Amino acid sequence: MHAENSFGLGAGEVRRRQIIIKAILVGLVAGLLGSLFRLAVEGVEQMRIHVVKNFDGWISLPVALGLGGIGGGLAVWLVWRYAPHAAGSGIPNLRTVLRGEAEPEWKKLLPVKFISGVLGIGGGLALGREGPTVQMGAASGFMVSEWFKVKAGEGERRALMSAGAGAGLAAAFNAPLSGLIFVLEELHGSFTPVMFVAAFLASVTADVVSRFLVGESPVFHFIGLTTPGVASLPWAAVLGLAMGGVGVFFNRGLLATIGLRERLLKWPAFAVGAAAGLFVGFVGWTVPGLAGSGGELVQLALSGSIAVGLLPIYLIARFALTMVSYSSGAAGGIFAPLLVLGALGGLWFGAGVEQVMGVAGMSPQVFCVLGMGALFTAIVRAPLTGIILMIELTGTYGFMLPLLVSCLCAYGVAEAMGNTPIYEALRQRSMKTVIKAQENADKKKAAKMLAEETGGGTDGRG
To answer: Which of 156, 162, 167 is nearest to 187 (CA)?
Structure first.
């Protein structure tokens, strides 16, 4: 017997209609949180740059080091002290929660994620705002489900959390379609009508809120750039193949750096964050613009305002900054850092093509967009999200065909090399850490009980 109401609607249709108001409310909350977080990060980041610039010569160095050390130290201390699941981007933790392997929690997560992200990224750590916004959006979805007393185990709570995650991404980048595709492709890998309706409504609503509070322009923009034609496709393929290898190197490097930090730096949380902040502060003082989320660096690359000879140095420096910043455990994502690397690498590749081949009608800046999309695809292994995200970030719909070629080539290389997507790799690593900690705790408990029993027996004989 089919579950239908008096109007003859199927159970699936009823669930879709019931979730509409909740999904819109999730979008409003996630959009507001994401917009406020974006404005706060940008405001603190600009304040840090302004303060450092106000001091002349060597006097500005201790100021840069102090701001970086304090910001990084407080950012990591807050996470480790109050909400360890708020570390990093938060997307691996969200995947664990959606799988039912961990309990969702929002009361501590929201304030800790917000404040830690603002302090860390604003203080100069090379992290992005999108990961925290996605996790805070998912937490908003769970919060709304509690407001409506949604029962666990029926799928609606999971749908609202997923919708909140998509809304968070939409608010971070003014990218509603990317938020929707991210939920379906990356978080679930499948399509259901209820999930689609919830994610679509929440993402669009969050985007409207973000555009109202932050602005309607794309995050990045071009000026007078010619749309690449069919002649660009072979070069797009070559760049995609290269970025596929770079993406695998990035994933393995990030995991290795986290492991190295955990083995070597058994310091208090504040000291770990402060060390990362000092390193980032020094690099940012040496080369202004390298520290922080890197949005302005991407815009400089898109406008062709970076000297080609500096690109290799910038690439190495940003890679090192990203490894150190993320491994510290502060709240911050890898979307923005990998976009910076993709843009710089793409510009370097495009400059080489122009210098060697002299291809007419193809500006090196074209390859910035292709590089960002290809590297995102190789690292996250979500090609549709990467393609749509690049189009929404830049407003360059004419880049669709070369983006398809670059992203699919990068995807193929990463798959052929057998590399695990970064969020899944981080999730698996986190689960192993939790299991190992539990085993150690059980061993200590057993040893303590044995010692008590042995001690008790000896006393009794005495």
So the answer is: 162
Q: Are 235 and 412 in contact (CB under 8 A)?
A: no
CA distances (Å), origin 297, targets 282, 344, 356, 392: 17, 8, 25, 18
Which residues have a Cβ under 8 Å from the Cβ of 450 and sit 6 or more positions away?
A: none
Residue 420: how many CB atoms within 10 A of its CB?
A: 17
Name the residue with tokens 């990317």.
178
**Domain limits, the chain:** 12-213, 230-422
Do 196 and 60 contact (CB within 8 A), yes or no? no
Exposure string for 341-371, b = 16+ CB within 10 A, e = fewer? bbbbbbbbbbbebbeeeeeeebbbbbbbbbb
* Confidence check: pLDDT of 242 > 90: yes
Q: Which tokens is 60 given? A: 């500005």
Distance of CA 351 to the CA centre of its chain: 28
Q: Is 192 helix (H, G, I), strand (E, B) or coil?
A: coil
> Beta-strand (E) ranges in 83-129?
none
Quote the CA–CA distance of 398 and 250 in Å, as a whole number. 29
The dihedrals phi and psi of 333, each to the nearest 5 degrees, come to: -100, 180
Check pLDDT > 90 for residue 300: no
Residue owning tokens 């995050």: 219
Q: What is the DSSP letter of 128?
A: B
Specify the CATH number for 230-422; select among 1.20.59.20, 1.20.950.20, 1.10.3080.10, 3.10.20.30.
Answer: 1.10.3080.10
Q: In this model, does residue 7 exceed pLDDT 50?
A: no
Side chain identity, residue 215: G
Q: Give the pair of three-digit tokens for residue 308.
A: 């080609």
Top-tier CATH class for 12-213:
mainly alpha
Distance (Å, whole) CA 42 – CA 423: 25
- pLDDT tens track for 87-108: 988 999 999 898 888 888 889 9
Q: Report residue 348's pLDDT band, with 50, 70 and 90 as the boundaries.
A: very high
DSSP string, 306-358: S-GGGHHHHHHHHHHHHHHHHHTT-B-BSHHHHHHHHHHHHHHHHHHHHHHT-
Dist CA 368 CA 390 (whole Å): 10
